[in-house]
């Protein structure tokens, strides 16, 4: 009445083949996952900056209607850690939020690289953008603020067109420097 007992389970060869296949899939997908994480970090910084600039422009228009003072925005260039001041507006009465800090980007304490041209400008009472008091004229293409995280691609940009006060967000997924190639209005 004793029947032979057959072993159940996987052989060592089957387990090794499965591990090799899963390793290949993980290696192929890992690069895509890192690209997605970098893209989302850059998008986070640009979204915060564009939203703050939009709100600061509206607040400055309301403030200037009664006070007549210029509202000067200053963008901080360079490599900024989370919590560092990325942008500010003065005088303090110009906006409900006078400073914008770099958001927490998590994962290995990344830094945001900001490159604005020019670094200071004024919101006019009509919501347009003008050179800061005593500053050079605005570039013909408006104010451009380039953003990367850890100096790696993708490049994200915010552009303010002075005559119309239009705020645009741009991107270039293939570069960490240079110019954005695709633009969309907010």
Question: What does this 3D model show about the protein?
Answer:
With 186 residues, this protein is of the alpha+beta class. It is 30% helix and 31% strand. It is built from one helix and eleven strands, in the order αβββββββββββ. The strands form two sheets. The chain has a six-stranded antiparallel sheet, with helices on one face. It has a five-stranded antiparallel sheet with strand order 4-3-1-6-7. A hairpin with an 8-residue loop joins β3 and β4 (99-101). The model has no long low-confidence stretch (mean pLDDT 85).
Report Rg: 25 Å
| Overall morphology | elongated
The helix fraction, in percent, is: 25-40%
Give the tally of β-strands.
11
Provide a short characterization of the protein structure.
The protein has 186 residues and is of the alpha+beta class. Helix content is 30%, strand content 31%.
Describe the secondary-structure layout.
Elements: H1 12-67, E1 71-75, E2 78-80, E3 85-90, E4 99-101, E5 112-117, E6 120-123, E7 129-131, E8 143-149, E9 152-161, E10 166-172, E11 182-185
Antiparallel strand pairs: 1-3, 1-6, 2-5, 3-4, 5-8, 6-7, 8-9, 9-10, 10-11
Keywords:
186 residues; alpha+beta; 6-stranded antiparallel sheet; 5-stranded antiparallel sheet; 1 helix; elongated
